[in-house]
Amino acid sequence: MTGAKEEIISKLRQDILQWEGFRPPLPGMAGSFELGPLEQAFPNDVFPTGTVHEFISLCPEDTAACGGFIAGLVKTLLQHGGACLWISATRRIYPPALKLFGVDPDLVVFVDVPLIRDVLWVTEEALKCEGVAAVICETGGMNFMESRRLQLAVEKSHVTGFILQKDAKRVGTTASVARWRVRQVPSEPRPGMPGVGFPRWQVDLLKVRNGNPGSWTVEWSKRKFRTIIPIEPAEQLRYYA
Amino acid sequence: MPKRFVSIWFRHLLTDWKKIRQPSLKGKAIVFAEPNHGRLVITATSAEAEKYGVIAGMVVADAKVIAPGLEVLDGKPGHNLKLLKGLAEWSLRYTPLVAVDLPDGLLLEVTGCTHLRGGERDFLKDLTGRLKEFGYDVRPGMADTIGCAWGVARCAPYDLIVPEGGHRMAMMPLPPSALRLPTDLLIKLQNLGLYQVSSFIHIPHAVLRRRFGKEMILRMLQALGQEEEFLVPLKEPVPYSERLNCLEPVSTRPAIEIALKTLLDNLCKRLYGEGRGLRTAIMTYYRIDGQSGKVAIGTNSASHRSEHLFKLFALQLDTVAPGLGIELFVLDAFQVEPVNEKQNDLWAAKPGADSEVVTEMLDRIAGKIGTEGIRRYLPDEHYWPERTALPTHEIRKKPDSEWRRDKPRPMQLLDNPEPIEATALTPDYPPILFIYKGKRHEIKKADGPERIEREWWLEEGEHRDYYIAEDQDGRRYWIFRSGHYNGEQSGHWFLHGFFA
Q1: Which InterPro entries match (chain A) (predicted)?
Q2: Is residue A234 situated within a structural domain?
Q3: Can you point out the beta strands (E) in B128-229?
Q4: CA B2/CA B107 separation, integer angstroms
Q5: B7 with B153: CB under 8 angstroms?
Q6: B404 close to A (CB below 8 A)
Q7: Packed helices B79-90 and B13-21: angle between N→C axes, nearest 10 degrees
């Protein structure tokens, strides 16, 4: 009897997730993002695709870091084909750098919108299109209503959207599924080697619907994400001994 | 099937135009005059002035003597060409091939156009009737050749429509001036007593050529259709073009939409049959008050889906100003390309989606922001950072070479490198700190230098020594020194990008 009840409850939980815009990945489509421990923050332990993710950037350095992190995610999204659009009014992205994150720059369509107020219109139009795998949008900020429009668009088309908000003052409540902040942290060159190491970021998941926000240090090395687990000081000593 | 041409002669083009502009001048004898060698010489006359015997080429002072009350207006050289061009554009509603025939006429090729208005007689009646309504005194002529139509319009007393194949007979009774000959030749013919074309048309060509020159033979042959003559149309006819005449002028949006849909359906049917699709198209509408307007679209890939093209037009239909009503819609496809039936080479294998969806979405975006804003980048074989990515507006172009991935490149690149103050202690070593926008960055880790030479065959200037620098907060920058180290503490250092 109790078993049946639990079954019903878990079934209802799954239904609620679906109604809220989370869809279990289609069979054979579950491209792994290889995010490691980070994935446990999400419902079902799966990075939610077909939703809108928000990224907050306070300075150009943050924008670059977010760009790298997003490019790493887009690489997986593009594995099964589809187009990728990069929509912006003030774009500085350097296409050849995308190759270093596993995205072929010639597969990305860059849309430079002359007026900043058209950016969200173009983004919504792109998110509605089912042939698109990922849409990245750089904008100043958006209000609740605009974010809800975008979220409704992706729920129908199952496109993954990444909204990069550059105006931190305007960030308010939104309907997005997750809100991220990606900052650069000092890299770690290989022991005994000079120079700069692999790109390393402090990834904060500030908000996630039905998940657990958290904070991780993530490195991009050997064409995939690697979560850095801080080494205990005692262990660290042994490491260098 | 023989070709059919219409020549329209505006007998008093300039003065008629003036009278339309100033109705108070109606019924008055007016002339246009231009200064010529210190005298005012008449260039155009009205019918009333001609009654007094005033003709073009007369000096104004003489004309005033024979015609009291003559009004003299200032003429502008080239004005008739401007007027004729306007009239030619207006007559595009009758046929797509219209040419200006200086100094005072229009030439229309109407092959296959006349049945649309109920036969040749009604066609010509409609055309001249409306020109007369405007206030122009016109005489038309229709024949199988340009030369014959021209002659009939100007010299024939009646039978202005020459039946098919009848142009030779029609030319016979006309005076030599029907042959478009220069004045000195006409005087010569007059003096010789050759008052009709029939009186010299049988003379062997060799004899005529010896006496009157090559031009006369050419004009004769052209009028008789033995020598080909071509119109130089005002507008190049577009090979993929559809026209829709409205029975009644329309002005409501649903009516315009129906007209547009009909045009698009017809055009797309034809394009589909030929395996082609359009890239750019312009819909021109002609209003009953003589004004016209345009709506243009472009697509990212050739398309012959009328629903999609209609959506692109619909974005701009608000700009259509129908005024009192639109009587003619013309849809021209200026750029037509073969359609790639399997358009899946780029957007392969995304389930449930094919590339058409994407390109159509891009078309919609282009309709809003313009096509310039949508671009892709292809690798270009340059080391200079600003040139490694080549922008292209083609959506299906494949890269010729591989993207390089052996060197780290910044995620964000500034369009123009920004000068920074940097302190470098040792030549060819990364600086130990730099100041950018008032903020001090101590460099903890750095890689470099990576020297990139300027491409001297493209531009001149210093080479750049790039360093990847990581500051105390872990932020990574791409900075470079322009040129060689010269011992100065700062200067020549620039920030060019931000690494991820």
Answers
A1: ImuA (IPR017026), P-loop_NTPase (IPR027417)
A2: yes
A3: 138-143
A4: 16
A5: yes
A6: yes
A7: 80
Structural domain span for residue B110: 5-155
- Residue B496, both tokens: 């060019």
Task: Kindly state the tokens that stand for B221.
Answer: 């042959």
Query: Are A100 and B408 a contacting pair, CB within 8 Å?
Result: yes
Residue B225, phi then psi, degrees to nearest 5: 80, 15
Q: What is the per-residue DSSP string for B329-354?
A: EEEEEEEEEE--S---SSSTT-TT--
* pLDDT tens-place string over residues A91-128: 889 999 999 888 888 888 899 998 888 899 999 999 98
Q: Are residues B266 and B124 in the same domain?
A: no
Inter-residue contact A41 to A211 (CB < 8 Å)? yes
B305 domain residue, yes or no: yes
Mutation site, B412, B436, B443, interface A, largest A CB count within 10 A: B412
**Total tally of structural domains belonging to chain A:** 1
A1 lies in some domain: no
Tokens representing residue B64 in the block: 């005033």
The closest of B125, B200, B204, B114 to B164, measured between CA atoms, is B114
CA atoms of A195 and B499, how far apart (whole Å): 14
Residue A130 · residue A21 · CB < 8 Å: no
What residues contact A66, with CB distance under 8 A and at least 6 apart?
A55, A57, A164, A180, A182
Question: For A203-241, what is each residue's pLDDT tens digit?
Answer: 999 888 888 888 889 998 888 888 887 665 555 555 555
Interface ipTM: 0.85
Rounded to a whole number, what is the distance in Å from the CA of B329 to chain A's nearest CA? Answer: 30
Assign residue A60 the CATH number of its domain.
Answer: 3.40.50.300
| For chain B, the helix, strand and coil percentages under 3-state DSSP, each to the nearest 5 | 30, 30, 40
Residues B212 and B245 in one domain: no
- What phi and psi, each to the nearest 5 degrees, are found at residue B471? -95, -170
Cα of A5 to nearest chain B Cα, Å = 37
Is the minimum CB–CB distance between B430 and chain A shorter than 8 Å?
no
Domains in chain B: how many in total? Answer: 4
Q: Is residue B390 part of a domain?
A: no
CA dihedral over A172, A173, A174, A178, signed as positive or negative: positive
Instruction: Give A24's pLDDT tier (boundaries 50, 70, 90).
Output: low
Q: How many whole angstroms separate alpha carbon B158 and alpha carbon B138?
A: 14
